[in-house]
Amino acid sequence: MTVTFQLNGEDCRFDGDPMTPLVDILRQERFLTGTKAVCREGFCGACTVHVDDEAVPSCLKPVGLVHGCAVTTIEGMSSGNQALHPLQVNFEAADAVQCGMCFPGMVMSLSAFVRDNPHASRPEIKAAMVGNICRCTGYERIVDAVAECLDQARKAGQLVGGIHV
Amino acid sequence: MATSVGRLFTAASTIEEAMAARRQGAAVLAGGTWMMRDPRRGVDLPEAVVALHRIPALSKVEIGSDHVVIGAAVTHAVLGRELHGAAGFEGLVAAAEGAANPGIRRVATVGGNLCALDFAAADLAPVLLVCEATVELETFKGPKLLGISDFLKDRHTLLAEAIVTRIHLRRDLVASAHIRLPLRKAGDYPVAIVALGVDKDKRCRIAVGSVEPVARRWTALEQAMRAGPASALDPERAAELALEHNDFQGRDGKEAEGWYRRQVLPPLVKRGVAALLKTGGLA
Ligand SMILES: Cc1cc2nc3c(=O)[nH]c(=O)nc-3n(C[C@H](O)[C@H](O)[C@H](O)COP(=O)(O)OP(=O)(O)OC[C@H]3O[C@@H](n4cnc5c(N)ncnc54)[C@H](O)[C@@H]3O)c2cc1C
Ligand code: FES
Ligand code: FES
């Protein structure tokens, strides 16, 4: 079957088994290895991408279901010479990243969250992260960085990923 | 309709197209969060699938003054959002917002939750039992309506020739609650689930999921609570009655042994009644 979709803003065509998990196409066919395949069971969140702006696990997404959709991976959040997403800036500033395995998924889940929840409280940030497992950081620094990102945007009256906060 | 060669993949745009593919042997694909893990359970993915996500009639929640209709392809996230604040549906909202994790909830559907055969821990099952939901199926012989309890019991046979299309709910509960016990705060299947609802006559409905292989109403406890004074809606008293009328045979499983699932029910009932009393309908 031929599946076509937008991948980081460009046309993408896949010919093959429509039940192939999206993560495998991203990594093995498109060499977009920022998206990690860790548990392959929907539990860890390392494979999170945006499909039509929603953060979803790509390990359980048969590619046939993304026909006609827009897929964004961590590589699509910012290319090498562009400014980083404000959340990435805050993760870097807070030195929140350790081994980095979970972070592409964290950024994809939480960037959609900050876009949709500009006034989120700390418990709400934590609730949004329950599907993203990190084995290194103990989470608090990540929560700090997300809270700081929202705070900065509120103070500056800016947009985080398109929504006015 | 898009159909592939090799593995057959049909993205149906109507129920009729989906049924035509079913008749040719295609398995239903909803969000895929259950089916995509089949290979890990040693089960091959189906040779032919029919996806429901492009059928508009199955992807909406219709809220009327005395009736709610939920399309089978509605996701947990949409269900929680659409019913938020609807009196009497607090339990259903809690189930939709508490199951799995946010990424899965954006994908996993109501139909998939009820049709994943041999899945004992489905969060929506007990709360839909309490709502006395009616399941609408499209079968090879035409449409069929069935009480949720019968559907859950017979789904192995029923689903061989059917698609679940909609869930119908009456709006006759004034308050409801959904209490789940996972081993960790998130990410696990619940060890046990207790759903409770109270109707306009203050009659309590209670259902339990994840303790036995199939969720069911706790009629012995419902009767005991009805036999007592209205003060049976006291959390402590309800827990005592739950202990006395515990007729569940716990199933052994990866997360917990059967005796434990059974034993946690009275405290969950206590929490459930306390949650009911806090809802707008009873406060
Ligand atoms: C990480 C993780 C955590 C989870 N935690 C929970 C949890 O806490 N609580 C919980 O309840 N569940 C949990 N689940 C299970 C999840 O809820 C189910 O996987 C989900 O509801 C299935 O829905 P789906 O749309 O993805 O179904 P699919 O995987 O597409 O389908 C599941 C089955 O149902 C059949 N089917 C689907 N729709 C229909 C229909 N309309 N008519 C006929 N047959 C149909 C399919 O053929 C298939 O056999 C979890 C899953 C994951 C991956
Ligand atoms: S690899 Fe997809 S959730 Fe873990
Ligand atoms: S930084 Fe190592 S897993 Fe999160």
TrEMBL record, chain A:
A Pfam family reported for this protein in Swiss-Prot or TrEMBL: Fer2
Top-rank taxon: Bacteria
Annotated GO MF terms: 2 iron, 2 sulfur cluster binding; metal ion binding; oxidoreductase activity
Domain 2Fe-2S ferredoxin-type residue range list: 1-77
Keyword Coiled coil: no
Cited InterPro entries: 2Fe-2S-bd, 2Fe-2S-bd_dom_sf, 2Fe-2S_ferredoxin-like_sf, 2Fe-2S_ferredoxin-type, 2Fe2S_fd_BS, Beta-grasp_dom_sf, Diverse_Oxidoreductases
Keywords assigned by UniProt, alphabetized: 2Fe-2S, Iron, Iron-sulfur, Metal-binding, Oxidoreductase
Entries under PROSITE patterns matching the protein: 2FE2S_FER_1, 2FE2S_FER_2
SUPFAM superfamilies per record: 2Fe-2S ferredoxin-like, CO dehydrogenase ISP C-domain like
Protein name per its UniProtKB record: (2Fe-2S)-binding protein
Organism, scientific name: Mesorhizobium mediterraneum
Automatic annotation (TrEMBL), chain B:
UniProt KW keywords: FAD, Flavoprotein, Oxidoreductase
GO MF annotation: an example: FAD binding
Domain FAD-binding PCMH-type: 1-174
InterPro entries, per the entry: CO_DH_flav_C, CO_DH_flav_C_dom_sf, Diverse_Substr_Oxidored, FAD-bd_PCMH, FAD-bd_PCMH-like_sf, FAD-bd_PCMH_sub2, Mopterin_DH_FAD-bd
Domain of life the protein comes from: Bacteria
Gene3D superfamilies from the UniProt entry: 3.30.465.10, CO dehydrogenase flavoprotein, C-terminal domain
PROSITE patterns according to UniProt: FAD_PCMH
The keyword Oxidoreductase is assigned to this record: yes
PANTHER family attached to this UniProt entry: XANTHINE DEHYDROGENASE SUBUNIT C-RELATED
Descriptive protein name: Molybdopterin dehydrogenase
